[in-house]
Amino acid sequence: MGDIVFWIIIRTAITIPAIWILKSYIDYQLWLIVGIAVIYGIIIHPAVLSYKKFEVKNKNVLESSLCSTCKHFDPSAVLCMKYDEHPTEDYIPCEGIHWEPK
Ligand code: SF4
Hints:
The protein has 102 residues and is mainly α. The protein is built from 3 helices and 2 strands, in the order H-H-H-E-E.
């Protein structure tokens, strides 16, 4: 999840100044349309795709792992907050010893 946010910030930091510079070269109404299209195409759409990939990749961990039922699990980051590690289908950081119900 951190990767997704990182790349949103990077793409935004590059795209917004580029759109701003473009403003002085084209008509305002066209610039507005191009700006919205560029923001959607370069920032929003890739972020949505990345998030969908993230959800698919972690679906089993989020829905049917031991960690998904534990109070120390943060589903938004797929992270065990007690161990500060990412559980996977094959890896449970505490090996079930510190599992606590939500
Ligand atoms: S404490 Fe153990 S069971 Fe709970 S989220 Fe962390 S690794 Fe998973």
